[in-house]
Amino acid sequence: MSPELPPLRPAAYAPYHSPRDYILSWTDVIWIERGIGRLGEHYAADIKVHTAYGETYDFDSVVSNSVQKFAAFPNGGGGHGEDVVWEQRGPNGFVSSHRVLKTGTHTGFWTYGAPTGRDWISRTVAHCLVQDNLIVEEWLVRDEFAVLEHLGLDPYKIAAELASASPVTGETLVPGPTTGAFAGRIADPVTHGVSGPRPARYQAECAMIADLFETVWNKRRFDLANRYCHDGVVCHTVRMRRVQSLDAYKVEIINLLASFPDAKIELRDIAVNDSSDLGLRIATIWTLSGTYCGVPTYGPITRTPVTILGSSHFELRDGRVLREFRIYDEVAAIAQIVRGREMDFMS
Prior knowledge:
There is one protein chain. By secondary structure, the chain is an alpha+beta fold. The protein folds into two domains: 10-172, Nuclear Transport Factor 2, Chain: A; 200-346, Nuclear Transport Factor 2, Chain: A, CATH 3.10.450. The chain is built from seven helices and 14 strands. The protein has helices at 19-32, 59-72, 144-150, 155-165, 203-218, 246-259, 330-346; strands at residues 43-51, 54-56, 80-88, 93-105, 119-131, 134-142, 192-193, 196-197, 229-237, 241-244, 264-275, 279-291, 305-317, 320-328. Strand 11 (264-275) and strand 12 form a beta hairpin. Helix 4 (155-165) crosses helix 7. The chain starts with 18 loop residues before the first helix and ends with a helix.
């Protein structure tokens, strides 16, 4: 624990016995018990929620979106918490990076249309800043492609509809000078990210993760992945894909960058938790910005600028990555590509 920070006050997560219990118990209240009206006890009235489709700044939007999902998936939608990587932010606050394995059956009308009667499974990460016992800011990363694929819906058709209906698909996530919570570049996420200053702990481990992104991803030194990962490293990623081995891990990164060959990844936030049952885990929020000018993974090349909001949870053993859970929204990326294609057509 940093000497500059006093211990986390129990009032930050009361009446629960830990930040982990706070997050998991509230998730059950909202999604299992359907206590949607109690969100006011959990979320600040002016909460800021950042997703791959833009930003919302009010409690009513959170309630509205939750009600719609209840209707579409009455037997699920909330999912089961796989992990809560939490870390202190000041005497009365903490970051919670909550990784959820979500399941449900599409038996009601939803944003994407009539019920299909099919089951789905996907992962989501809710990276939240909690202050004074309320969530004040949230970065929400979903694997929406997996949901649509499992429901038998066309992700490309849905992405095209989103591109037409939404005024924001990636613009607010662009790194560098902009507005909102993503304004400005993060000079050193090891010490200070979008959730605020980090305590001076596990800095060597955080610096290793930051260097993994910079060296392997940004400098394309895939041959150096063994510096950061075990030979048997496992990566759970989008579309419920799982790969194992150092070579497969490298290929997973290469395949994403091949579509955006000029892309750079920027680490935006880090949280660390070390527990006796789950070991040392590091949660991150990142953006990947590049041009759709490489291999045509998502249809014909458009040379469209694309920004992807992502989250990775790393499990470490003996100072290297043993497992990574990497989540990002391909549907949002496709929507940006479709919009670029439409703009080219109109011009």
